[in-house]
Design the sequence.
């Protein structure tokens, strides 16, 4: 429901009664819904979750700047959606699941779900790994991974997601964290399961249990590494989390705090980059002229990456909790409500981006897209993600041409998710150069 200044319900609401932001088809292809909401109800009330759905670029900017009113302490929202996903499990499955959960170390709020100054005390511990100079320093290692996986994929072909888009970011974030080679299988499976928890595709009770077991295995692996790094520090993120101290409290991070930060990096560090590799490759398949332009002028790759991030934002939205009665875009929002800031909608707002559905290699200020958020919670790993993408696409275009969809498979579609936007499969054909 959309409330206009001085009125109860906007007249525009009458034309939006058919909109359900949780409808599976809307989650798979949200862009028509986004457009209707931007034009008629840019702050749209979703009563099921006491949530206001924000779709216009300028309104997202306004909310993100006002961190006092729009708090990042939205654990309640995430817990509520998590519990909804577990509803209806058979009693025996729920009992076994509860036994596994009882063994998991509780993860307190750290970066994503904290406000200043608590947010900074955790973020500052790991920010040193993602400065421009540190990312540049690691470029040769990242390029080596990209080239190795690209060579292997060109030999086999097939599903681009499984063959390239998935393994590259996962390998790189594993390297950055410091995961030993003999633990990679556990790490890869656990990290994949962690990201899968944010999707909405129906899964069996047995799959729910499998993911819970993987979460426990991953926790045990990471806790073991944290303890090992305190005895034998290495040049990696786990060492930083294991050995750094919170200055004001003069103590090391608890295992729960370290795990909370690491779990956020598992999702942000590979899932979003994987998704953008997929959507970018799909754009190349659907617009063959882009392939030729990028080969002719590799300098356009940076704009292509920003456009791929903008057109199909890997994180479609994140919530904020409203701390006091306020008004946004003429909509009255009471304290205690949640707002859902839809980056995917803002990035296609024609008020900000001309011809927003198109990938434009010559777009001015393409970096104004909000795929990595904005403000104090701007994605800390954005420089690493951009590095991987800016190295990955040229590596592929140097090796293959005439890239096209494999028509023997169904048309690629997004996996339904309220938070993320990913392609589970992307089967392509190409000619070797």
Sequence:
């Amino acid at each position: 429901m959309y409330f206009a200044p001085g009125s109860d319900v906007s007249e525009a609401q009458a034309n939006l009664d058919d909109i359900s932001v949780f409808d599976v088809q809307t989650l798979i292809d949200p862009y028509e819904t986004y457009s209707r909401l931007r034009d008629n109800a840019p702050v749209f009330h979703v009563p099921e979750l006491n949530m206001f759905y924000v779709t216009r670029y300028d309104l997202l900017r306004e909310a993100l700047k006002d961190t006092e009113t729009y708090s990042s302490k939205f654990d309640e929202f995430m817990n509520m959606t998590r519990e909804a996903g577990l509803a209806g499990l058979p009693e025996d499955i729920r009992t076994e699941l509860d036994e596994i959960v009882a063994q998991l170390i509780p993860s307190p709020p750290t970066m994503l779900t904290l406000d200043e100054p608590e947010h900074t005390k955790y973020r500052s511990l790991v920010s040193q790994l993602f400065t421009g100079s540190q990312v540049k320093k690691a470029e040769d290692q990242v390029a080596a991974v990209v080239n190795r996986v690209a060579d292997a994929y060109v030999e086999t072909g097939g599903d681009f997601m499984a063959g390239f888009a998935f393994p590259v970011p996962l390998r790189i974030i594993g390297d950055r964290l410091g995961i030993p080679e003999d633990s990679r299988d556990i790490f890869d499976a656990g990290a994949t399961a962690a990201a899968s928890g944010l999707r909405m595709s129906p899964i069996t009770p047995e799959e729910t249990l499998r993911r819970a077991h993987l979460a426990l295995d991953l926790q045990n692996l990471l806790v073991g590494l944290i303890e090992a790094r305190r005895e034998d520090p290495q040049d990696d993120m786990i060492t930083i989390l294991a050995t750094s101290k919170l200055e004001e409290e003069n103590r090391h991070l608890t295992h729960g705090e370290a795990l909370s930060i690491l779990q956020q990096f598992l999702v942000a560090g590979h899932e979003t980059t994987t998704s953008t590799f997929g959507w970018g490759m799909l754009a190349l398949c659907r617009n063959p002229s882009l392939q030729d332009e990028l080969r002719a002028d590799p300098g356009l790759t940076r704009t292509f990456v920003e456009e791929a991030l903008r057109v199909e934002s890997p994180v479609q939205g994140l919530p904020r909790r409203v701390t006091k009665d306020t008004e946004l875009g003429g909509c009255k929002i009471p304290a205690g409500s949640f707002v859902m800031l839809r980056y995917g909608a803002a990035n296609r707002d024609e008020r900000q981006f001309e011809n927003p559905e198109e990938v434009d290699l010559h777009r001015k200020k393409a970096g104004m897209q909000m795929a990595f958020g904005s403000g104090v919670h701007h994605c800390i790993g954005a420089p690493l993600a951009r590095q991987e993408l800016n190295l990955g696409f040229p590596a592929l275009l140097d090796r293959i041409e005439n890239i096209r969809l494999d028509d023997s498979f169904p048309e690629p579609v997004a996996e339904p998710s309220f938070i993320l936007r990913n392609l589970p499969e992307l089967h392509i054909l190409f000619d070797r150069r």
User: Anything to note?
Assistant: The chain has 18 helices and twelve strands. Residues 11-432 form a domain with the Cytochrome p450 fold (CATH 1.10.630.10).
